[in-house]
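Problem statement: downstream parser choked on a complex file, so we are re-checking the raw output for the adenosine-5'-triphosphate run. The parser issue turned out to be on our end (a line-ending mismatch), but while we're here, posting the original submission so the record is complete.
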Amino acid sequence: MDSTGQTPALAIAGLHKTFGDHLAVRHAELTVAKGSFYGLVGPNGAGKTTMLSMAVGLLRPDEGTSLVFGIDLWQRPDEAKQLIGVLPDGLAMPEQLTGRELLTYLGRVRGMDHDTVTARAEELLAVMELDGDSERTLIIDYSTGMRKKIGLACALLHGPKLLVLDEPFEAIDPVSAAKLKVILRGFVAGGGSVVLSSHVMALVEQLCDTVAIMGRGTILAEGPVDGVRMGRTLEEAFVELVGAEVSAAEGLSWLAS
Ligand SMILES: Nc1ncnc2c1ncn2[C@@H]1O[C@H](COP(=O)(O)OP(=O)(O)OP(=O)(O)O)[C@@H](O)[C@H]1O
């Protein structure tokens, strides 16, 4: 339970992963309260995807646990996975299906009833603008943004209570991004919980109530966005915490000549 006496939507404890002798995630701890909109930021290679993949059951941790509404995901994966919708990084998909076929197939795999799947697929394809002219397009011919959108539709189809989204806004056009923000805000307003990773600090500041900053496999700061910012912009806090060098590049002088 968290400080409010509620079971958190997601509680990660001691998640640890090495690839060979490379440490990707070091005993990560974080707690996502129910109803929270949680942002995870960090530089390239910080370990965000590795940590989220372990948290949702896509990558086996060396150590640690991930509890989804109190259910140990690696002990009781079927129960835990009913509760979460996941948008993984670099999602592999059945390329020879249309978006609607993919959603219908996924609904069957998840054991959902046919009418519910048909109605939800219709709505999701419309919201993601993957209907109409795109209706007959095979996934192999989708653009990067379209792939992201059908991935999101797949994550939402079974009506999860927690969404874990790895860079959901990457490659999405501004109109679709605005729609997606409305969907995610509505999801949280209705009691859902969201964890998303992003490189766009302004987006995290705009959407999220809680943020974690990760660097070199470690959670460097976690808490309410205002608490982590401490009077600075999130970008300033980020740069300070990860110790990035932001002075003008001294090299590459040949570029200007
Ligand atoms: N399958 C793998 N095998 C070996 N090393 C890996 C593997 N997956 C990730 N890594 C390494 O683990 C570290 C963390 O990578 P990860 O993809 O989790 O970072 P990230 O924070 O999501 O980065 P980005 O913001 O660039 O997506 C990196 O050094 C990466 O090279």
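For whoever reads this later: The chain has one domain: 10-255.
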